[in-house]
Amino acid sequence: MPPTITEHEFKAHCRTTPQDDDKDETDLHLYRMTRYSDGTVKLRNSNIELMDQDILYHLALGSESHDLQEMFGDVKFVCMGGTPKRMENFAHFIMDEIGYKLPAGTQLQDISAYSYRYSMYKVGPVLSVSHGMGTPSVSILMHEMIKLMYHAKCIDPIFIRIGTCGGIGVEGGTVIITDDALDGQLRNSHEFTILGETVHRPAKLDKKLARELKSLASADDPYDTIIGKTLCTNDFYEGQGRLDGAFCEFTEADKLNYLEKLRDNGVVNIEMESTIFAALTHHAGIKAAVVCVALLNRLNGDQVNAPKEVMHEWQQRPQILVSRYIRKVLAQHGQLKSLFGHQGSIKSPRRFKLVQQESQAHD
Fold it and tell me: Which ranges carry the Nucleoside phosphorylase domain (predicted)?
């Protein structure tokens, strides 16, 4: 097992700026719990090391059926979004943006096709994964993606959620980078029930990463890119103060008063995934960000009425910003050229078949 990181190695790795100095001690403690000295992901669960095989049911992968280090060891960016089609489109988009070339006669494959739940595409150092809708779906995927990073021995991966949202006081088409993720009671945490007990974990995102993403917005972009607080709810209708659900026991005045209260607290958008995404990445010591596009201004209504072609263009905007960041990081490391990926390696055909069967059995 690799040794844990030292304070000297941590500071060299972080390259802290003056405004980050007061965070050194806390960050060092978290980093020691979640990283080995070579920067690879360390799980906060010793049970995994004792298992003969760790089957990632919902990804149709296994630690002994697949050579996960060979398949995913070069991953630097894990980009997630709600629908399989959106993330398939992003995979093709990022492939062009970073100059990634597939071997002749091959095409992008859905690595998790046999799970029938999530879709995952690998484009060199980028994973493009669908996470479904709402916190339970994201939670399942996040556990298995973090374990995948561990088994693959990925070094300091960065997770970015690319999504859609409702704006509060911002117009449709605005790109929003989350500063703080808040729950329905405006707490910067996510509430878990574990063994019957309530547990709160901080829903912290990397503020430096958020600022860096914001800096990549171009003055030539025909839309605004802003940073603000995001409200994460457990429901699309009543939980977000919508008047158009199957049930509604409040008035339009009540709804508008609530939305104004959110705006007064710095909330600029509403979605359903940010707190669980932030809480689990922070608990794993993984740098993470959330970038969404607003589909409407909720102060003006509840239903999305933009034409389909406009919606399609809006949803490309967060992808463009994230691609700029990925290109920048890869360029800094001289990795924009000669990117050749691996579509997968099977260590054990027998275990590979077992993992497929196990994934299909866990409905």
Answer: 76-327
| Phi, psi angle pair for 80, to nearest 5° | -125, 145
Q: Beta-carbon neighbour count of residue 251 at 10 Å?
A: 10
For residues 46 and 14, the answer to whether their CB atoms sit within 8 Å is no
Q: List, for residues 170-218, the tens digit of each pLDDT value.
A: 999 999 999 999 999 999 999 999 999 999 999 999 999 999 999 999 9
Q: Which residue do the tokens 């403690």 mark?
A: 29
Helix (H), strand (E), coil (C) string for 103-138: CCCCCCCCCCHHHCCCCEEEECCEEEEECCCCHHHH
19 annotated ligand binder? no
Q: Is 161 annotated as a binding residue?
A: yes
Query: Tens of pLDDT along 330-353?
Result: 999 888 764 444 444 566 666 766
pTM of the model: 0.87
Domain boundaries, the chain: 40-338
What is d(CA 304, CA 86) in angstroms, rounded to the nearest whole number?
A: 18
Is 193 annotated as contributing to ligand binding? Answer: no
Single-letter residue type at 206: D
Distance CA 50, CA 75 (A): 25
Binding residue per annotation — 124?
no
pLDDT in tens, 106-129: 899 999 999 999 999 999 999 999
Is 172 marked within a binding site? no
